[in-house]
Amino acid sequence: MKENFHPETHETTITCTCGAVYHTVSTVKNLRVGICAGCHPFFTGEQRFVDTAGRVDKFAQRYGSIRAGRRAPKPAATA
Fold first, then answer.
1. What CATH class is the domain 10-63?
2. Residue ranges of the domains in the chain?
3. How many CA atoms lie within 13 A of 1 on its CB side?
4. How far apart are alpha carbons 30 and 48 in whole angstroms?
5. Is 14's pLDDT higher than 80?
6. Whole-prediction pTM value?
7. Do residues 33 and 15 lie in contact, with contact meaning Cβ atoms separated by under 8 Å?
8. Strands 30-33 and 21-26
9. What is d(CA 10, CA 25) in angstroms, rounded to the nearest whole number?
10. Sign, Cα dihedral of 8, 12, 14, 15
11. How far apart are CA 30 and CA 12, in angstroms?
């Protein structure tokens, strides 16, 4: 077998932005994550809605309307 094949592992502290702290073994010494199993909506059953009204208003200001308009049909090709 090859020598020095596996990477070096360390005791690791994983810290989430929600405040949860996990202790494990990893090749990276300390990790900071944005979302974990303690605060992810899939695991908590909590549903968060994104403010889409702000996006729609921004679109309406930029392009003038939020309603989709139909263009005039293309003229028939003459053979």
1. few secondary structures
2. 10-63
3. 4
4. 29
5. yes
6. 0.48
7. yes
8. unpaired
9. 6
10. negative
11. 5
DSSP secondary structure letter of residue 68: -
Nearest residue to 57 via CA among 48, 65, 49: 65
Q: Which residues contact 29 (CB under 8 A, 6 or more apart)?
A: 10, 12
List the end-to-end C-alpha distance of the chain, in Å, as a whole number: 75
Q: What is the pLDDT of residues 15-39, one digit of tens each?
A: 998 889 999 999 998 899 888 888 8
Residue 65 DSSP symbol: -
Other C-beta atoms closer than 10 Å to the C-beta of 46 total: 9
Rounded-to-integer distance, Cα 61 and Cα 59, Å = 5
Instruction: Work out the number of other CB atoms within 10 angstroms of the CB of residue 1.
Output: 3
